[in-house]
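Thread title: Can someone regenerate the structure for this chain?

I was given the following input by a collaborator and told the matching structure tokens would be attached. They weren't. Posting the sequence so someone can regenerate them.
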Amino acid sequence: MTDTATSSSGATGRADAGVSTLKGRTGAGAPAQTRGQTTVADGVVAKIAGMAAREVPGIHNLGGGVARAFGAMRERVPGGSGGITRGVKVEVGERQAAVDLDIVVEYGVSITDVAGDVRSNVIGAVERMTGLEVVEVNIAVGDVHLPDEEEESAPDENRVR
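Best answer:
Regenerated them for you:
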């Protein structure tokens, strides 16, 4: 028998928030590793997807312009999320998850190749670590990072002092 996941609301299909619960078999005859439940929060799935996307060569950052600006402010606040889930949205159902990513790619890379590599890496990581089936990874390319662009947070050295 395989583990199944359910959302905290018990709803089927895609859900906006909550946790996934991996249910195992119970009873004296069941293997020890399957006795009980494992709960995986949606935020955990989002972190896994964000880390997996950032591992792909050609990805400069995650998040659109507004998301990156708010994420930069949150990173400066003590206790902020650190931006791991910036640009990542997940929806979790009973046994499946869907991931939406906003990405910024490096100039010169093939966007279609990078998107395919991101999908493969995210699907592999989420499925391996959570046991959920990833039914889709939607990618929105919001920007291209040019080699001579300064980082948004870098101070301008030529400004009046």
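Residues 42-145 form a domain with the Alpha-Beta Plaits fold (CATH 3.30.70.1350).
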